[in-house]
Design brief:
Elements: E1 4-10, H1 15-29, E2 33-38, E3 50-58, E4 61-62, H2 64-72, H3 74-78, E5 82-87, H4 95-98, H5 109-115, E6 119-123, E7 126-127, H6 134-142, E8 148-149, H7 153-167
Parallel strand pairs: 1-2, 1-3, 3-5, 5-6
Antiparallel strand pairs: 3-4, 7-8
Helix pairs in contact: 1-7
Bound molecules: flavin mononucleotide.
Residues 11-16, 56-60, 87-89, 99, 125-127, 132, 136, 139-140 line the site of flavin mononucleotide.
Length: 168
């Protein structure tokens, strides 16, 4: 029987949703039966043998839908292969360096320590000046983060391919 994989995500303006969709495409190409769903729309996790969970980062935190999913399913996830990713930093160069060395939100680190994910990735994000509100644009300018779409589709696909290789 095909393995069931869940790719769950939290996204405010759609950039992280598109990353999750790309990961889902790569997993399906590897013959893994994959559902890609917003984290707050996942009813039951028990059919899934493996879970990929990602969130956009805002002011150093994951979106609450992804954080809630992680907390609510902590015990189940601790028994399964899990991969986590954040989407956020804009600009050229290593995304972890752009995020001032932050690899994962501090508020969720203890849960990640318990779950022991196979990997935690940080992907470049997309700050779309036509989508973010005035206050958000002001905040981004304040921290001197560039506006624009810096998502690295090659890095995202390569990460998803490594997940597929681990599961098939
Ligand atoms: C107000 C604001 C705060 C942000 N804070 C962070 C942050 O702390 N760390 C980070 O890496 N990215 C930060 N970002 C960048 C977003 O995470 C990035 O735009 C992400 O790709 C958005 O994903 P979404 O479209 O799925 O919501 C911030 C963006 C905005 C507009």
């Amino acid at each position: 029987m095909e393995k069931q994989v869940l790719v769950a995500y939290a996204s405010k303006y759609g950039a992280t949703a598109e990353i999750a969709e790309r990961i889902g495409e790569v997993l399906r190409e590897a013959s893994l039966a994959t559902d890609v769903l917003p984290a707050d729309r996942v009813g039951d996790v028990t059919p899934y043998e493996a879970v990929v969970l990602g969130s956009a980062v805002y002011i150093g935190r994951w979106q609450k839908q992804a954080a809630n999913f992680l907390k609510a399913n902590e015990e189940y996830l601790a028994e399964r292969p899990v991969w986590l990713f954040s989407s956020g930093p804009t600009g050229e160069g290593d995304p972890v360096e752009l995020a001032q060395g932050s690899h994962f939100p501090k508020a969720l680190q203890s849960i990640a320590d318990h779950i022991q994910p196979r990997d935690i990735a940080v992907f470049h994000g997309d700050v779309n000046p036509e989508k973010v509100n005035f206050f958000e644009k002001w905040m981004i300018k304040n921290v001197k983060a560039p506006l624009g779409d810096f998502r690295d589709w090659e890095a995202i696909s390569a990460w998803a391919t490594a997940i597929a290789d681990a599961l098939v």
